[in-house]
Amino acid sequence: MLKAEDIFRPGAFPEYTYISRTSANSGLTYEFRLNQAIKVSGFLTSLVGPSKMGKTILCEKVIGLEHIVEISGADFDEGTDFWKLVAAKAGLSYEGQFTSEQEITEVGSKFSKKETFALTKDKIIDYYKEKELVLVIDDFHYAPEVKRMQIAQQLKDAIRRGFKTIVVSLPHRADEAIRQNADLSGRLSLINMEPWTVKDLEQIAKVGFEQLGISIDTSIAGQIAVESLTSPQLMQYICLNICTILEMDRKGCNAVKQEILETAYRYTTANFEYGEVISLMKKGPNTRGKSRNKFRTKEGYEYDMYELIVKSIAENPPIMQLEFEEVKGRIYNLLADGCEKPKPQAIRDGLAKLQELLGGREDIFRVLEWKERVLYILDPLFLFYLRWGR
Ligand SMILES: Nc1ncnc2c1ncn2[C@@H]1O[C@H](COP(=O)(O)OP(=O)(O)OP(=O)(O)O)[C@@H](O)[C@H]1O
Ligand SMILES: [Mg+2]
Q: Which of 221, 255, 263, 356 is deepest in the core (most CB within 10 A)?
């Protein structure tokens, strides 16, 4: 019999709960679009989408494990030899098979060095073609910036010769090297992955619980989907935790009831670590000894601007994109009647400073973006943690 952890797989390929989605702007499924893109010889495929939306899983689904060769942007540092890595990941030995570059340098002939290099590359490309391999450069944004440009340069030449590549990245981050690279224009298949809708997320719960013989009402599946904040990974996580709770109960309960949801959300946050991010946000930038204005909330707390912003993001309903008016409304709503309210400009300044503070830190801290009067939450797991974590 299948176990819950086989059905709901937040960290791996979800064999039993894989949902095929239709992309809103084309009316076609993502699988179809990626397949179509790979088939066009001489083109590079650029797959872009927010964090945890299923970009990697889509590549694995469409290409299949026998034909996919995955490398990550994080595999590169400035000195990494692109073709050496591409060869190694496909199981080809690079140095043993071909004359190494160093020996050539000793001979001292520039010409022969170039030729040998081309030969090496050719062999790798031929091998990929012969075995029908597709190279997926995942999380391209993790490669150092100079390296991204070099990789794009290498790819430009290789794709022309029928080498198949998909470059996967987060929005905005790899634009220059790939999408805004003049050398590649007219040779790109672009696929933008949109956030998941509540309807599509609901399917994960329905399909999964059905296989486990557990019933779930559409309204319950819908609530979990809303809390999942457009992320299929969160949906998988929460469903798996619901199963764990049901199993612990041992009462042979085979329905997902309303009462269990909050506990399941809380258990789910145990998998994430955003404590430091949240405390940094609440502290805000260094005040250099000056004290900040405090505002009294309905619940009787005294919060400064940064604490108010953090609070307001966590409010109901959970939303990944908040217009400024919405942020302001939520903040005013938190405050006690008659309490002096912060000026809109002060809220905007607070948001800008917060973005600056987080933007200068490691990736895990880049959880939001304040741009053109809209506050974007970039990481669904962060917002989920903010709502349900301790
Ligand atoms: N089509 C799908 N159907 C059901 N669940 C899915 C689907 N796609 C993704 N998921 C779930 O979401 C998880 C994350 O997916 P994936 O790793 O592909 O996201 P990603 O966009 O590559 O994230 P990152 O930006 O971190 O690389 C998967 O492990 C799986 O649990
Ligand atoms: Mg990925």
A: 221
Ligand 1 first shell, C-beta below 6 A: 9-12, 14, 17-19, 49, 51-57, 139, 204, 232-233, 236
Give the tens place of pLDDT for each residue, 272-325: 999 999 999 999 998 888 888 999 999 999 999 999 999 999 999 999 999 999
Q: How far is the CA of 137 from the centre of ligand 2 (A)?
A: 10
Q: Whose CA is nearest to atom 13 of ligand 1?
A: 233
pLDDT at site 114: 47
Question: How far is Cα 73 from Cα 147, in angstroms, rounded to an integer?
Answer: 9
The three-class DSSP label of residue 216 is: coil
Domains parsed from the chain with CATH numbers:
4-10+197-269 (1.10.8.60), 30-192 (3.40.50.300), 275-388 (no CATH)
> Is pLDDT at 253 greater than 80 in this prediction?
no
**Percentage helix, strand, coil, to 5, in the chain?**
50, 10, 35
Pairing of the two strands 302-303 and 295-296: antiparallel
Q: How far is the CA of 236 from the centre of ligand 2 (A)?
A: 16
